[in-house]
Structure formats: structure tokens, C-alpha cells
Amino acid sequence: MDEYGGSPRRSRPTSLKSERRASWRSKPGDPRDSLRLELRDSLRVVEKRNSLNSITPTSGLEFLVRRGVEGLHRVPSPIYDDEGNLVEPPPGSPLIRSAIMPLETMAERMREKWDVVNGVAAADPNAPSRLMALPTELHYLIIDQLRLGDVERLRRTCRFYHDLLTPAFVRELFGGPQALALQFAGVCQVCHYMPDDDANMTETTPALILQPGSHPLTSKCFRCSVRARDLHVGDAVVLANAGRAWVCRWCGWPVVGGTHSGDSEQFHGACYERYYRVLWCFLMFGFAQFSVGVVAGALSLAYFRQDLVVFVPAVINFVLLWVCMAFLILRGNYVRTYHWVALVELTILGLWIPPLYMVAKNLEVHLASPIRAATIAALVFFAVNMLFRLLNCIGNVLLMFEYNLTKHYMPEIPLRRRVLNYLITGLIYWTYPQCVEQKYPPDFN
Fold it and tell me: Looking at CB atoms within 10 Å, which of 75, 87, 384, 440 has the fewest?
């Protein structure tokens, strides 16, 4: 940033486009001049395309030059000096390959390798690239079509472009310091991503997040911000166009434009639909858990009243079941009661072990006699109830440690971690999916 700062630069010198014509000139009236003018005009009116945002220098040059030199003849024109005498350029001169010989499309010549032997250009695949043999004015015309991110990447490719694209030239290319500041704020500082080719910077910047005052005139795209874990659920971020966007509570990506849900501006529309479906599934599974707990307690009261090892724990578990329901209904979005609920669930899990053991032991002792259906039903309901309580206990422990539910939406994570994140997220949604809407800072009292 500091390298490109400073006062606005004066207009571009007109000598940049004519510095390579000092030694060789065409004969006055030669049709070669009109071809050159057509080439420059065609290059200046090339439309800016989205595909140029992330081009490499070679592919971008090929595209622009192919559009500019279409229709040129492959017949060379003679070269004359100031006195009108015919002059043949020296062997190996760059002018043979760039300014004098439009024998082929420049896109094809850039891909070729050359070796000059006795004044004759022969193909040599081991020779260095001929990209630098293009005239300087053509380099400037092509660079004028690039955006700031592409210019910065091109400047880092080699010393030639580093010296050619000076800070003063870059300032003038993008309209001075103020316009350059908008360009900096409209490009991701990490990956140099620019959403589209809107030159007014009014439609591109909503997809970029403005960095805090410690990093002035810098922005990050959504992808780099999520990868760096700069976004937090419940926060609003400032965009590069001075707007604000909430971080989605479901996926952790910013909610911009009209993508938010009609019920909550802190959700994408699709994310809120997924959250709504998860809530319905939680209600159905919660009703199933409550029903299993009630049926297990009823079986203990009806068939095992005389067996205190089964009857007493079943009664206590029935009471604790209602305690868990009270925690689930009464806690809000600020108060965190996960540690208390985890303790209650662990107590219920432990109290179901003696009844399960006693029923299984009685079933083994009376294996020769007819087995009552109530005994089998009680054994099944006790085991299922213990499984549900184990899952609830694990889920509350994960909630107690404030696990980040948006991890599986992060880009470029390994498959093993992605599967593990899905598993942990499923356990949390099984236990309490309303944690997505919880407020910060939390209250554990």
C-alpha cells in the first residue's frame, strides 16, 4: 500500500508509445502504418471480461492479441531508413519478432521458441519464451486492460514487469491516489479476488469485508475471512462499500443483499429453511425420548413394584425427566445451563443401570420358565432410554465447551475433519438445536 501512495501523477508521457521507433521506420505511405493503427485501435476497444480477473500473463496476452491482430497478412513489409534506403535488420534483433514481422498472429508467435542461425529464425523448443520480445507499447496497451489484482501479480512475475510497472505508473493507471484507494478496498488482500469488473466499485465491494483501522484500505473476500476464522456468529461486519452484513448463524458466512431470510436477517434464506427442518426433527425425536422415559417408568411401577432395585431408580428417573424438560423450556438465549443439564442426564444414565442389570439377571435365572412380555418390553425400554441419555449427555458437554457449529462450512478442510464436524454437529442438533440462536456474551449462572 505504501509503495503506491503519494500525490496524483501527471498525464502519461506520449513518448512511451514511440520509444521503440527510433531506429526503424516504414517508408511514408506504406500500408503497414494503417495496419498498425488498426491494431492499436482494436486493442483499445477490447471489452473488459470477467475471465480476465484471474488470468495468467500468457493467457491474457494471447486473448487480447488474438483479438487485436485478427486479419493481418503474413507478408512482411520492407523497412527503410530516413534517407529512403532499404535496410535489413541485424540477425536476432527483437524487431524481427515484434514490430517488423506481422507474418503470423502474435498469439502464435508468443507460444513459439526461436533460435536464429545465420539470420534465419528456426524453431527451438528449448529456447526461452519470446514474451519479452513484444514492443513496450503493446505491453502498456495490454496492461491497461487489467485490474489491480492482475497488475500486482504481473508485477511480481519477473524483474522486467517490476521495473516497467512503477508505482507512479500504477497510480496513474487507476486514476490517482483516491481511485487507487477504492481499488485497494475492492480487492482481497490475500487472494486478490475481485467479484466482477464493475469499474465504479459500486456492485463489487459488497462481496468484500473491510478490515479494521489497524489495516487501512484493505479488504478480505468472504472465503479468505472464513478460512482465517475472522467471522463470528452474532457479529455484524463492515463491507467495503460502507454497508453492514450479519454473519449467518447457520453457516458462518456473511448475509448480503437480499439473501437473508424473511424471518431473520441473521440467516440466509436456504440456511433458515434447513434450521426450520432441524427444529421439526428435534421436536419429533424429543417427543420420542419423552415417551420412552414415561413408558419405562410406567413399566417399573406396574410390574416391578416389589423389586426395590428396579422401582426406586425408576421413580427418581421419572422425576429427573421433568427436571430436564423444565431446563429445556425455561432457559433463554443468554443463560447457559448445559453443565447442569449434562449433570442431570448423567445421573439419569447412572440410575438406569441397576434396573437394567436386575431385569436381565432375572431373565437369565428364569430362562427355563415362560418369559413375560412385560419383562422383555421393560428391558428394551430401559436400554433405549439409556442410549438416549448417553447421547444427550455428550451433546450437552459439547455445548458446554461452545463448539463452533459452522466448522463444516469452512472451505478446503480434510475429509476426516469434515466427517468429524458433521458427527459433532449432529449430536448438538440432537440435544438442543436452538443453540444456533443463542446470544453473546453468555451467562453461565
Answer: 75
